[in-house]
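Q: Hi! First time doing this. I have a protein sequence and I read that you can turn it into a structure. Is that right? Here it is:
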Amino acid sequence: MKKYTFTGKHKKNNIHEKYYTSQEFINKNIINIFKNLKENNKAMSNLHFIDTSAGDNRIVKTLLENNLITSYKSFDISFSNSFGEIELKNWIGENYNTLKKYDKTNTLIGFNPPYGYNNKTAKKFIQKAWEEKHKYCIWLVPNSVKPYLLERYKELHVSSYTNIAFIDNSVDNKKTIKQSVMLFIGERLCKILSKIKIEKSIPKHDFTIERKHYKGIADNVSLIIKKTGNPVLFPLFYKKGEYWKQYYKREKITETAEIVEKDGKKYMRGISKNKNGWKVFDYAVESNVYFRISNIENIIDIEKLVEKLVEIGNSEEFFKHANKYKPASITQGWFIDYLNNLLDMLEKV
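A: Yes, that's right. Below is the predicted 3D structure, encoded as structure tokens:
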């Protein structure tokens, strides 16, 4: 049997850790959503549910108690004895159709698969479920999996949740991790749809943006912002005249930042903070973690722009947007669109 770190939960390297979807989340969100769907779709009556990574079967138990399914089949490679029967099998590795005796027009498959690196394992679960031709699916997966699902299923419901706690039931102190996830309920499409080409975002004004590795800071760069990690946007560096300024975790630093040269490349020397206090720190802003923007100071007063960036960096809306994915991040396309819209707005003032 193929081994991979625990199915059905959110995992860490310790193979004895199992992170379960909380009962509160299931009751508050999944059950109410599913009840509303069923009321508006009589075809979803008498569903047979297949949980591909069951854990302790808590989702099965709750669905049965609320009369949202009539029967079930559960799989896991390592499960907790809690409710009902769970088959000790790696469902993703089975070569046969596990439910040939059931009417596929009345089956619901899913729930909370292992994600794997870059969500590859979650996609394998989704693909196998689609290939087995079950009519409905329910998946609790990262937001970035949504395009993959929409190629295979008609969307019946999608909702996103930021920093939801998942609980490790294998330890006495109930350790938790937090993940940002999406609940997707869908109806199977007969064929996989072609990927929709998304128009690439490009600067409408005369600024340039790059995030290449190992390039250092060019002489014409005037704004450097963090694009991934927590918090994003900070530390932020901007050039005002001949001098560089810095914001660190939403705090303006009075000391002047500066460009330093190492091995023929230019880097940013600024201020960082740890448990021992503030210290001088050389930021490797040549990496993909930062955007480097050039010529923006010739389009807009850069301090006004920085004020806007700090404002949005502190907003709840931006926090939710950036934390759709782990690690928290903003895409280059989103940031280009944000600058385009902001510069358009300021032109009209």
